[in-house]
Structures are given as C-alpha cells and as structure tokens.
Design a protein that fits this description.
This protein has a single domain, classed as SMI1/KNR4-like (3-Layer(aba) Sandwich). Strand 6 and strand 7 (119-126) form a beta hairpin. By secondary structure, it is α+β, with helices and mostly antiparallel strands. 35% of the residues lie in helices and 23% in strands. It is globular, with a radius of gyration of 15 Å. Strands 1-2-3-4-5-6-7 form a 7-stranded antiparallel β-sheet.
C-alpha cells in the first residue's frame, strides 16, 4: 500500500476516534494478520488493506472484513454466467447496498447494480485507486448522491 493512502487511512481513523459522532459516520477496524505472499496478484491490494483495517464502514461505502468477505461469496451466483466466470471475482463490499466486486485477474474494482443477473456498472480502477480516490478522496462525491448531507464527505473535505 502506498504511504499517502496509508496516511489518509490513519488520519481518518484518528478523526473518527476523536469525534463523538465517529461511530455513526464510519468505522476503521483493527487490522488482520494475513500472509500476503501467497495471494493471487489481483487481490493483493484488498488484502493489504485488511492488514491495516479488517473491514471498514466509510460513509455510504462498506468494505468487508476478511470474515464477511468469505461468508458473502454466495452473492456472486447472481453474476451472468454467460458473461462472467465467478471464480475470477470476489465480492469485497458495497456502495449504497450495491455490490463492489473485485476482479481477481485484473485487480480492478467494479460496482454492480442489483438485479438478476447483476448489472456491471462503473470501474473504479485498482483497489488502491478505489480507496485513494473514491473512499478517502475527492471522487467520493461522484458516486454518492446528496453528498452535502453525508458526514463522511464533510470530514473528507476538511482533511
């Protein structure tokens, strides 16, 4: 994980811990010990995040903990089998309850939309780009409606 992103995460963790509304706004958990050397390349950035924060609630974006991620993979059965090989994807979170799914081959993060089958939406880049620009960055406002009322966004603007 790049130092700039790590510093953003640590700064937000500190702000949330010292804000009386912190638990309502978001939660960055303690990290999980994970052996990063035995992973497929496309998931390394996600697992590196779990080492820093084993799951997170970041305003309207949830990033699953390791345990929740393992329990939630059944949801991938709603991918269109003719278009996607379920083995190439991992369900890692949600944005306003729509799935955030990571492609294990490319390492790219996609938002999918509810339905049967799930409809592929935006690509947010690699997992680190997704974190740096959308979760902890200025592009958060591009994917969350009514962002002016979003307390996570208000903190992001102040950092």
């Amino acid at each position: 994980m790049i130092d700039k992103l790590y510093n953003k995460i640590q700064k937000m963790r500190s702000v949330l811990e010292n804000n009386p509304d912190g638990p309502v706004i978001g939660k960055l958990r303690s990290g999980k010990a994970i052996n990063l050397q035995r992973l497929e390349n496309g998931v390394t950035e996600y697992y590196s995040f779990l080492v820093i924060s084993n799951g997170a609630r970041c305003g309207a974006i949830d990033i699953f903990s390791y345990e929740t991620m393992l329990e939630s993979q059944y949801y991938l059965e709603f991918l269109d089998e003719g278009q996607y090989d379920v083995r190439d994807w991992v369900y890692v979170g949600q944005c306003l309850y729509d799935p955030i799914i990571l492609n294990k081959i490319s390492g790219l993060v996609y938002q999918f939309y509810e339905g049967t089958p799930l409809e592929q939406g935006e690509c947010y880049g690699s997992f680190n780009v997704f974190l740096n620009e959308y979760v902890f960055g200025e592009k958060y406002e591009t994917i969350i409606p009514d962002v002016d009322d979003d307390k996570w966004y208000q903190i992001l603007k102040e950092l």
